Structure formats: C-alpha cells, structure tokens
Amino acid sequence: MALRSFPPGFVFGAATAAYQIEGAAFEDGKGLSIWDVFCRQPGRIENGERGDVACDHYHRWREDVSLMQRIGLGSYRFSISWPRVLPFGSGRANEAGLAFYDRLVDGLLEAGIAPCVTLYHWDLPQALQDLGGWMNRDTALRFADYADLLFGRLGDRVARWITHNEPLVTAEYGHRAGVLAPGIRDLRATARVIHHLLLSHGLAVRRFREQGRRGEIGITNANTSFEPADASDESRIACERARDFSTRTWHGPVYGRGYPPTVVEHYESHGAPFPIEPGDLECIAAKTDFLGVNLYSRSRIEADPERSIGFRAAKPELPTTPMGYEKAPFALGDFVRFVSAEYGRPPIIVTENGVCDDTAPANGRVDDVGRVELLRGFLAGLADAIADGSADVRGYYVWSLLDNFEWAYGTGKRFGIVWVDFETQKRIPKRSAEFYSDVIRRNGVEA
Ligand code: FCB
Question: Which listed residue, 50, 287, 341, 363, has the most CB atoms within 10 A of its CB?
Fold first, then answer.
C-alpha cells in the first residue's frame, strides 16, 4: 500500500438531501412537496414508509454539525427544501423556513465547515406540480425566482451552489418509468421535463451572474461509467448510444453542444419533441464554474434491437451491493477521465460517491469494512486520474453523512458513514467514518 495524495486545497465533504434527512415535513409553515404526496400513495415506497421524520435533522442539526466536525469535514453539501421556504412554490416566502437554513449555515461556518447548497434535490412544491410541475415551462421561471431568493438570503455566506441534483433521475424515473415522484409514465412528459429542467438551470445561472454573486455555481448530473459489454461493433455502438442518452443529453446542452442527434431523433420519432424555444440553448449553456459528478458504479452495455433506444445493461460481472450496483472501484477514475476528455477538462467536483452497505451495529460498533474497501478504491482511482493530469478535480463529497430515507427504498438501504437508529435517532459513526477522517487528515488515501 502507498499513500495516494490529493492536491493541496482539495476539499473533502459529505452530502445529504433535504427530504432524505430533515423530517419536520409539516412544521413551521412548510408546504407540501411531491414527495410528501407520493409517499402517501399505496405501494410507492417499500414498507409504506414516508420521510415525515427521516433523520429528524431539522431538530438535530446541531448534533449533526458536531458529527461533521468530529469527522473533519471541510465542506457539507445539503439541499434546500423548496416548499419549506416557498410553501406554494412562488409568492410569499416562509420566514421560519429560511431561518432554519440561516441557522444551519451559521452553525457550519462556526464549525469551520464550508456550506455547499443544492437548490433542487427532487422535492418540488406540490402546488407547482398541480400546475404541471416540470412539464410546464413556467416551473423553470419559478425556479429562477426561488434560486434568486436563496442567493439573496444565503449568498453572503455560501460560496458554492448547485442548481440541480441529477435532473436525469427526475425526468427518467419520475416521468418515464414513474417509480419516483411525481410517478408519471409518459414519454412526451419526459421530453418536456428534460428541457425545462435544463432551462431552469440556465435561468438560475444567469440570475447568479447578472447580480454579480460571489462564489461558484454548477450542476450535478447522475453518471455511470459505461463500457461496451464485449469487443463487438454492436456493443461499441450501443455503448455510445447509452452515453448519448444518459451522459450527453445532460452535459451537451450545458457545454453548448445541444442535445445529441440520436436522442432528439428518438424522442421526435415517438411524437415527443423537446419544446425548445429561441434562445433556450444559449441560456442553458450559460457559463458554469464547475461540473458536479455523482457516480456510484459502472455499467456494461450491449445492443438490444427489441428496444427503441437500442441498448441495455448487460448482466453484472462483478459482485453487487444491495442496490444491485456492481462493486466497481475503478468507475470513478474512469468516469472523470471520460467526462474531462469529452468537455475540455472542466473543473470537477465529485458531489456524490458512496456505497450501500447494511452492516448493523454489534457491540456498539459498525464495522462496515465492505464500504471502506470500496471507498478506498474509488478514492485511489480518483487520486490517480488527478495525478496523471487526466482530470481537474477540486473536491469530493461522500454520499452520505447519515443513513437516510433512500427514496422508494425507504430507510432499508443504508449509505451513511454514520449509522442512524430510526427508532431512537441515535447516531453511531461507522468504521467508514474513521477511515474517511484519516483520508481527510492525510489528504490522501492508502491503497
Ligand atoms: C443518488 C441521489 C441521492 C441518493 C443516492 C444513493 O442518485 O442523488 O439522493 O439517493 O443516489
């Protein structure tokens, strides 16, 4: 084993999302989000769970900030609940909701931890969903106003902003497959949602620039490191299609390349065109300061002539986590190399990377050695890609600080480096938290 160091000034953090940890779903004037509604529909969430309480972070944030401090985090990435600050999505702001984020930001700064704010991590105000949600172009305009409200309120203390977390998931899983909120299955809706999410990103970045806000702003996309399943031409072509549908649809417009022709053609041939208006693509291409990369695994791709998209994921070759993701520690280094080559080596921040591992406490300790080994591999691959100049990566956030409400899986799938007992709300830092502290302290990983 040798120490693989990160560059000086590299930032290590942990990430969470509002609906997954806050709880207090009906307190202090918060409005309903699409997740409050979705979780109440029978059969949507495993065991009929809901995020009403989750990690009760809304009340326990001080304890959680102390945990972050003990681990040694340099930064903390969290998301704002839009309906907590704007109960109806637009109009009058909820002062109590804003005050919560004020306190959290101040508490982080006092603890020496830099806040990183995600504006949208999937919990749209239900009031906007009632007007069509992301299918309605107007939601993109409301998002820009909401972003503005937060820039104004927290911008004096927050220097890193993320517009969207994984818009692909909102479009694909929320509107095509219908397995996440708002639970719609409609390809026309999906095309509209893709475009309106990206448009809303561009509009928010534009506001940020127009007002000369300090700090940096970017978008975080969902990624998989795609590989052809074998050496055949069919698999190679299928893999390129997977990159078009998944990676390039979300990065292309942000980097001024527009939507991939294969994807445009697919949606158009299904009567589901992107509702692009003049000026939209210029707006989406507004300059960003960094690219947020979320990555959990790789996927081997092969052709599937039966499906109109023309490809599918081949059977996993490697052992998988309880989420079914292949344990592929090389995937993070591979992906940052790929995306850097593709888009001219933008500054990258790994905004999520982590491991589902359900190791439970024994004698008061959680020895999640499987998570530790996989994190070690991810970090080593990342350090190598930086060291050989393939990628300009500035920071890394582990997903997640806490075990939390894992969307349609409920609390059954654990990603935290801190164990949460959802009955008592007791937190226990796991072996992986000790490992991560060590990485942070040494600014490097032993691998
Ligand atoms: C990502 C999400 C995050 C969490 C992890 C496991 O896709 O951004 O909220 O669900 O996966």
Answer: 50
